[in-house]
Amino acid sequence: MKALASPELLAVWEWGEDRHTIDRSLALLAAALPEKSWDELAALPVGRRDGLLLELRWRIFGPVLEAHVPCGACGETMELELEIRELLARAGAFEDTEVELAVDGWEIRCRLPDSRDLAAIVGCGDDEAGRALLLERCVETARRVGRDCTADQLPGPVIDALSKSLEEADPLAVIELQSTCAECGHVGTEFLDAGSMVWSEIRSETDRLLREVDILARRYGWTEDEVLALGPRRRRAYLELET
To answer: Taking Cα atoms as reference points, which of 169, 136, 168 lies closest to residue 153?
Structure first.
């Protein structure tokens, strides 16, 4: 995986700003992993895709991730500092793309959800409909006492057990963070959306780059390509010069 240079960041931002978070995540990875096709990246289990996003974030912005979330009790903004290394360590060395589960007389084989599955449920009207479609897409076989069944026949407790197995097999698919509010002491659980968070930082970085291009282009008459070709250290040096 390569870190993205300033022109590449701007190109990905320009393409993805008006698109869904799923497409933005894949576009970032496609730029950082040019040896991988879009289809290959889209087929990655969600947690493994997000693990790569966190690794890319590390390469671009550094190893510490800062998150700002509201307290669920008093509403005050909490600042969380997260070591990306610790988050990536949660993923372990899991390589399987499907799970097999035997519970309450059911035998189920299910593949791990990927970006294509998430895209398919975007238009669902509610969480229940989305979960039903996700099961329909991902459950490959389901049998009850030797009889083939469909995903919509799975009872609630079996679905809960299957969901737990999927989370264990792809730990970064759902990233939970424990937080304690400094104002009221409330202890809660926050969920990290890696794709949205990384894109928010990409947006802030491109805003900064565009401001630098604007200032230096006005001051010296350079084109955008010429400004970006200078590299961040030299651009900062020019910006710090007195006019």
So the answer is: 136
